[in-house]
Specification:
This protein is an alpha/beta fold. Helices cover 38% and strands 13% of the residues. Helix 3 runs parallel beside helix 8, helix 4 packs parallel to helix 5 (128-135) and helix 8 packs across helix 14. The structure holds pyridoxal-5'-phosphate (PLP). Pyridoxal-5'-phosphate binds next to helix 4 and helix 5.
């Protein structure tokens, strides 16, 4: 899709190159000086701010306030949101939760992941994925990444499974679906449950089916930076209504929906309920999600077509089975050797000066010191023999992910809510920096 129309500036820039094949996608003047060296920034306007809201949210919130029904149980907003989110994703059932981290924790509990079990996780993720496993006193075992897609590489699962391995948590990082054919096949082979961490992947799809519906359940986050936002919030979806009912019970002190009396407890649980305020905001934000997602997708496709012309900027690959990317992040690798050795840090600084705040991605989470401190705790030492930690150390070798941590960069979802010109400015900034990389390095 998206044959970009040749921009006026691009057209003019192409004229002197008569005799050379016209390159319609070359836009902007790479010859102009980078902003870091005193040139004019590629973009002077700010990117769209987040969150997006209007009177819809104000009215919805005021109605909850005036109703006096602020908690789930008295009000109806949380239930309405659950029904709407199930409908949107096509899932049989949905439970709204206090946040995404606890959506994972509830799922681990209700799928029978217990202290002393092992759970396969990707190393390239937000720390919450791993914290959820550690809170359960289970051992996170890292499956190396596919550096082309930034996602867990299911081909690397096989050697990591032990008789204690119970679950696998694929994370659709940045909204880009994991190779779920590979994950589901490995899970079947080794009899593992699959908890999809879709906390960055609202309405992303794998082979036309919404993510979160490919494994046993899917967990979502509605934290303030996320594409669907209620400040804090989360949800679990599943095709298994019975499982969602058990999650419901667990998240409200072990009291199932159909109680024999007000104080009958069916299981041990906790309180992880969403408030009516969060749900009211989410119902309002939901009215914009599809339109915003379409805009991000169209802009991302255009940006990818522009960045393909820049050696050393490598947008994250989408698998053939990915039919929709939620674009929480626009992921790409920066190869310094194609920029005359200019460091990623300096490249990002130069991008910032161009008016385009891109970020270096995650650090090597699987090499973090806090993991070992946690393993040294009394509880963990009771649950796992010392040899297991030694073996964990040997297995924790992730060359593809290490590369990703050196080269990974991203643009936030807000960048993709801007217009097409903004995508051209992003590409123009990179081209300017590349052309003048040696001077930028010295600056
Ligand atoms: C945001 C996020 C979470 C946690 O969600 P919260 O709502 O912040 O608790 C978990 N996993 C990933 C990949 C996330 O991006």
């Amino acid at each position: 899709m998206n044959q970009p129309a040749i921009s006026r500036r691009g057209f003019l820039a192409a004229i002197p190159a008569a005799g050379v094949a016209l390159q319609p996608r070359i836009i902007g003047a790479a010859d102009t000086k980078p902003a870091l060296l005193g040139g004019k920034p590629a973009r002077t306007d700010p990117f769209p701010s987040w969150p997006v809201f209007d009177a819809t949210e104000e009215k919805a919130l005021a109605e909850v306030v005036r109703s006096g029904k602020w908690g789930r149980g008295t009000g109806k907003q949380v239930e309405k949101f659950e029904a709407a989110y199930a409908r949107l994703t096509g899932a049989r059932a949905c439970l709204a939760t206090v946040n995404g981290t606890n959506a994972l924790i509830i799922s681990l509990n209700m799928l029978g992941i217990e202290p002393g079990d092992e759970v396969l996780v990707p190393p390239y993720t937000f720390v919450a994925t791993v914290n959820a496993v550690l809170r359960q006193h289970a051992l996170p075992v890292f499956v190396d990444s596919d550096a082309d897609s930034f996602q867990m590489d299911p081909k690397k699962i096989d050697g990591l499974v032990t008789d204690r391995t119970k679950a696998i948590i694929p994370v659709h990082l940045g909204g880009n679906p994991v190779d779920m054919d590979g994950v589901v096949a490995a899970a079947r082979k080794h009899k593992l449950v699959v908890i999809e961490d879709a906390c960055q992947a609202w309405i992303a799809q794998w082979r036309g089916r919404n993510v979160g519906r490919l494994g046993d359940c899917g967990c979502f986050s509605f934290q303030a930076t996320k594409n669907l936002n209620s400040g804090e919030g989360g949800a679990i979806i599943s095709e298994n209504e019975d499982f969602i009912e058990r999650c419901y019970g667990f998240h409200t002190q072990g009291r199932m929906r159909k109680l024999s009396s007000e104080f009958s407890y069916n299981l041990s649980g906790t309180n992880l309920r969403m408030t009516e305020f969060q749900a009211a905001i989410l119902l309002s934000q939901l009215t914009r999600l599809e339109e915003q997602s379409k805009r991000r997708e169209a802009n991302a496709a255009y940006l990818t077509s522009l960045l393909r012309e820049i050696p050393g900027i490598v947008p994250a690959k989408m698998y053939e089975g990915s039919t929709r990317n939620a674009y929480h992040l626009y992921l790409f690798r920066y190869e310094a050797d194609k920029f005359g050795g200019l460091s990623r840090e300096k490249f990002l600084k130069a991008m910032q000066a161009e008016g385009i705040g891109a970020a270096a991605g995650y650090d090597q989470l699987n090499k973090s010191a806090f993991l070992k401190t946690t393993f040294q705790s009394r509880g963990f030492r009771r649950l796992f023999p010392a040899e297991r930690f030694a073996r964990w150390e040997e297995q924790n070798v992730t060359p593809a992910n290490d590369r990703l941590c050196n080269e990974g960069c991203w643009l936030g979802q807000g960048h993709l809510l801007a217009d097409r010109t903004a995508m051209e400015q992003i590409a123009e900034a990179m081209r300017k920096i590349q052309k003048h990389a040696a001077e930028v390095a010295r600056a």
